[in-house]
């Protein structure tokens, strides 16, 4: 089982902080701690282990979030995402100069939050590009799983199948022929994690498994056969499968 990606939430609006915490938990991230002011944030950063921070620019209405961002970059060497509800050019310019790995603009939805976290990890490992407002950000067809102190990047196009394992989803990466797990249910993965442009490539074939159609080699006797194994198609899921595949008679 892979390690959980640990995230700090530094946000002074309680309703937003709780919403972020709820969505991060749903996506399988571990909330390592929460703070609502500059002093508590410093204490949190010093005593908790974390991989990434979500940070409100206008913390307590005095842009102290920008100073925290500079500290996260220069002292802690951690990626961070600036959360902002402002379009004021000076504040945004100062925020960009602090070196965030991504931006998230209020209001946001669960999917844009997930994309921002994934982009932040990617940009931190390949610095030089910052993802801006979600409405402007492109949809990236990759995600990360944490392996010790490293992050494994996986392209959705390489995911052969998704299999439910209680609160986890196991997937097979065709690129290295290895299985990995993310702490997110199969339903949530299919609904919110897979990029919109690729959702029609995955089809659920039974209560616990979904498969990417491009990997199907043969369908026979209620079985789906791929180069990576054979899977059972149960009643109730056959129609969706037939609607996605192309059959020439």
The second-level CATH architecture of the largest domain is 3-Layer(aba) Sandwich
CATH class of the largest domain: Alpha Beta
Domains, number: 2
The pLDDT mean sits at 87
The major beta sheet can be summarized as: 5 strands, parallel
Number of helices: 7
Q: CATH topology of the largest domain, which one?
A: Rossmann fold
Molecular structure report:
The structure is a single chain. The N and C termini lie far apart (44 Å). The protein folds into 2 domains: 6-140, Response regulator (Rossmann fold); 145-244, Beta Barrel (OB fold (Dihydrolipoamide Acetyltransferase, E2P)). Helix content is 31%, strand content 31%. By secondary structure, it is α/β, with parallel strands linked by helices. Mean pLDDT is 87; it is low at 131-138. 35% of the residues are buried. α2 packs parallel to α3.
List the helices and strands and how they pair.
Elements lengths: L5 E5 L3 H13 L3 E6 L2 H10 L4 E5 L7 H13 L3 E5 L4 H9 L4 E4 L4 H16 L16 E6 L2 E6 L3 E7 L2 E6 L4 E5 L3 H8 L8 E5 L2 E4 L3 E5 L2 E4 L2 E4 L5 H7 L5
Parallel strand pairs: 1-2, 1-3, 3-4, 4-5
Antiparallel strand pairs: 6-7, 8-9, 8-12, 9-10, 11-12, 13-14, 14-15
Helix pairs in contact: 2-3
Characterize this entry briefly.
The chain is α/β, with parallel strands linked by helices and 249 residues long. The protein contains 7 helices and 15 strands.
Which key phrases capture this entry?
249 residues; alpha/beta; Rossmann fold; OB fold (Dihydrolipoamide Acetyltransferase, E2P); 2 domains; five-stranded antiparallel sheet; 7 helices; elongated
